[in-house]
Amino acid sequence: TFPGVPKWRKTHLTYRIVDYTLDLPRDAVDSAIEKALNVWKEVTALTFSRTDEGEADIKISFAVRDHGDFSPFDGSGHVLAHAYPPGPGFYGDIHFDDDELWVEDKSGTNLFLVAAHELGHSLGLFHSADPRALMYPVYNRLTDLARFHLSQDDVDGIQFLYGPPPVSPDEPVAPTESVPSGPETPAACDPALSFDAISTLRGEILFFKDRYFWRRSHWSLEFEFHLIATFWPSLPSGLDAAYEVTSKDILFVFKGNQFWAIRGTEVQAGYPKSIHTLGFPATIGKIDAAVSDKEKKKTYFFVGNKYWRFDENNQSMEQGFPRLIADDFPGVEPEVDAAFQEFGFFYFFRGSLQFGFDPNAKMVTHTLKSNDWLYC
Amino acid sequence: YPLNGAARKEDSNMDFLQQYLENYYNLAKDTKPFVRRRDGGPVVEKIREMQKFLGLVVTGKLDSDTVEMMHKPRCGVPDVGDFT
Questions:
Q1: How far apart are CA A135 and CA A129, in angstroms?
Q2: How does pLDDT run across A170-183, given as a tens digit for each residue?
Q3: ipTM, 2 decimals?
Q4: Bridge partners of A103?
Q5: Where are the alpha helices (DSSP H) in A86-237?
Q6: Are A126 and B77 within 8 A, CB to CB?
Q7: Confidence band (pLDDT; 50, 70, 90) for A167?
Q8: Nearest to A138 among B74, B78, B82 (CB)
Q9: Residue A164, SS3?
C-alpha cells in the first residue's frame, strides 16, 4: 500500500473517461478500461459505475508531456502512465502518456495491462517487488493476455484493503473452505500436484507447471523455483511436453501445435515450428508428453493412449507408429502428462503419480508420488 | 574520439541513473555529485535498494542488467517514497 495506507472508504466507486487516445477506437478504450476494472472487481467487494460528466472518483485521461500535475510525461517510451492513490480531487485519477502507441494486442503498449496496473494505484496499491505481480513497476510486454490473472501478491494486497468478494447466498461454500483468493503459485508438496512437462537440461531436471518450473540439480539437495519467463520470456506458460537432445544441447518444448528449440536461455531462430513438421498427422493438435532415449537417439511422443517414435539421427518419424502405450509400456497408465529419462529408467507421470519404467525388463518397477523428485 | 564517446555514454548513464533514483527511489536531489564516488554512499545504497526491489542481483553497481531494467517501459509512480 501507499504510505499512510490510503483507501476508499466506500465500496462503490465511479469512474469517468475524460478523454480518449486517437490510437484506438473509443469502444476499444472503453472495453480495455472495463476489463481492467473487472480484474479488481472479481477479487474484492468493490463495484464500479461509469459517469460521463462531472466529478468521479477515478478520472481517466490521456495526456502528453507537461499536463498540469508536476509529473510531466517523457515522450514515447519509458514512463507509460501514472496514477494517484485514493482521495478527493485528482487523487484516484489515472493519466496515460499519449505519446505511447496504445493498442489492444502486444504490437505497442497494451492499454488493458497498463490500465489494470494503474487502477491498482487508484485503489490504493503501491508497487510490488514481486516480478509476477501486476503491480510490479516495469511493464511486461510478454504477459500472456489470454491467460492473464492477478498474482497472489496482488490479490493479497487488494483484499487487505477491501476484503474478498461477497459470497452469494446461492453459492454453497464448505464451512472449512476459505473464500478463494485467486490464482496461486503451485506448491511443491501439494499431494495433488501434477506436472505439465518434465525434461532434463544440461544435467538438471526441470519440472514445468503452469507459468513456473522447478529446477533440480544433481549437485545440490536444494531445488529452485522460477517463472518460465525469467529464463525464456518468449515461451508460453502451460507447456504440454519437453525433452532434451543432449547430443545437440537442445531443449525442445511443446505447446499446442507448436514447438520451440532452446539452447541454454536462447530460443533458436526459426521457431516456433508446427509439430506437423515432425511427421505427425494433421489430426494431432497437441502432444501430451515426450521423452528422449539418450543412448538410442530415439524420442517418444505420447498422445492420448498412443505413442510415436522419432529417430533423432534421421530426423524422421519411424514407420509402424503410433502404437498403444499399454502394449509397449505395460503398467503405465493409458495416458501420460509428462515423461523423462534418468538413471536408465523412463519416468512417466500421470496426475499425482509417477511410474518408474525399466526399458530392459519392460516393466514398471516402482510407483511413487509425482513430487517425490521435489523431496516431498 | 572513441574514448570521448565512451565517456559521454558513461556520463549519460550516470545522469539517467541519478534521475531514475530521484524519480523512483526517493534519492535526495542534493546528493550530486555522486557518480565519481566509489564508497558506499547514498547513491550506492539507492542502487542496492533499486536492485533488490526490481529482483536484480544486488551489486550496488550500475551493471548491464541494471541499466537494461532501468530503460524498460514502466509506471511513473515511484517504487519508494512518493511523487517528488
A1: 8
A2: 444 433 333 333 34
A3: 0.84
A4: A110
A5: 111-123, 152-162, 228-231
A6: yes
A7: low
A8: B74
A9: coil
Q: Which residue has the cell 474484492?
A: A44
Contacts of B75 in chain A (CB under 8 A): 79-83, 114, 117-118, 121, 127, 137, 139
* Residue numbers in A near B71 (CB within 8 A): 78
CB pair distance less than 8 Å for A138 and B24: no
A279-292: pLDDT as tens digits? 999 999 999 999 99
Higher pLDDT, B38 or B14: B14
Distance CA A288, CA A302 (A): 6
pLDDT computed for residue B4 by the predictor: 52
Cβ atoms of A97 and A72 within 8 Å: the answer is: no
Nearest CA in chain A to B24: A137
Q: Which residue among B53, B73, B77 places its CB closest to the CB of A83? A: B77
Q: Which residue of A has its CA nearest to B74?
A: A138
Rounded CA separation A74/A83 (Å): 15
Task: Give A-chain residues touching B83 at CB under 8 angstroms.
Answer: 70-71, 82
Rounded percentage of chain A residues whose pLDDT exceeds 90: 69
On chain A, the residues whose CB falls within 8 A of the CB of B82 are 2-3
Task: Choose, from A118, A171, A204, A312, the residue flagged as catalytic.
Answer: A118
Q: Under DSSP, is residue A258 helix (H, G, I), strand (E, B) or coil?
A: strand
Rounded to an integer, what is the distance from CA A361 to the centroid of its chain?
39
DSSP annotation of A178: P
Which of helix, strand or coil describes residue A28? helix
- Of the candidates B35, B27, B31, the one whose C-alpha atom is nearest the C-alpha of residue B11 is B35
A216 close to A231: Cβ distance less than 8 angstroms = no
A118 classed as catalytic: yes
- B16: nearest CA in chain A? A78
Contact B74 A109 (CB under 8 A): no
CA–CA separation, B81 vs B84, rounded Å? 8
Q: How far is CA A109 from the centre of its chain?
A: 19
Do the chains contact at B77 and A82, CB–CB below 8 Å?
yes
Q: Pick from A294, A329, A324: which is nearest to A308 by CA?
A: A324
Distance CA A265, CA A232 (A): 6
Q: What whole-number distance in Å separates Cα of residue A253 and Cα of residue A290? A: 9
